[in-house]
Amino acid sequence: MGILPEDIVNSRYILLWGSNPLNTNPHVWPFVEEARRRGARLVVIDPLKSESAEKADWHLQPLPGTDAALALGMMHVIVTESLHDTDYVAHHTVGFEKLRERLKQYPVSRVAKITGLPEVDIKELARSYAKARPSTIRLWWEWSIGRTVRWHFAQSHACRH
User: How many whole angstroms separate alpha carbon 78 and alpha carbon 132?
Assistant: First the structure.
């Protein structure tokens, strides 16, 4: 799932979404640090103030369980402002028009109310992520103590498809 940890060093923008690799996946952190030495921006999205969040350039704390709305809000901004790779979408995806219609239900004003984040932050997150190339989204998929995967991972991952 996703990229190899070693490839994180090539990213210009790293988005740790519900992920705290300093505690849960420490072998990833040196790659994050190397990417930052090379100029990458580190953004953490997590309701919790984790060790990884404390080291981030920017920490956004949406209300718990609102990951899907935030992802849809980001996509709304990216698609509305034509910040997506239209050639890639045209040649390598299916259902984009349905997604575009669905995104109309998630304007930033609505997403701000759902997530508790300021509208300006949602727009900045979407724009900065879309404009940075290459970029990485690292979802929290490490196993928890009970050998189950956190619910918000499944919710966030579902938004990607």
Answer: 12
Condensed to tens digits (0 to 9), the pLDDT of residues 146-159 reads: 333 444 444 444 44
The domain in which residue 73 lies consists of: 5-160
In which element (H, E) is residue 152 found? helix 151-160
pTM metric for this prediction: 0.84
Counting every residue written for the chain, the total comes to: 161
Residue 99 CA to residue 41 CA, distance in Å, equals 28
CATH of the domain at 28: 3.40.228.10
Q: Which residues are registered as beta bridge partners of 40?
A: none
Residue 139 tokens, joined: 């979802």
Number of domains in the chain: 1
pLDDT digits (tens, 9 = 90+) for 53-108: 999 999 999 999 999 999 999 999 999 999 999 999 999 999 999 999 999 999 99
User: CA 11, CA 24: separation in Å to the nearest integer?
Assistant: 21
On the question of a cis peptide bond just before residue 5, with omega within 30 degrees of 0, the verdict is no
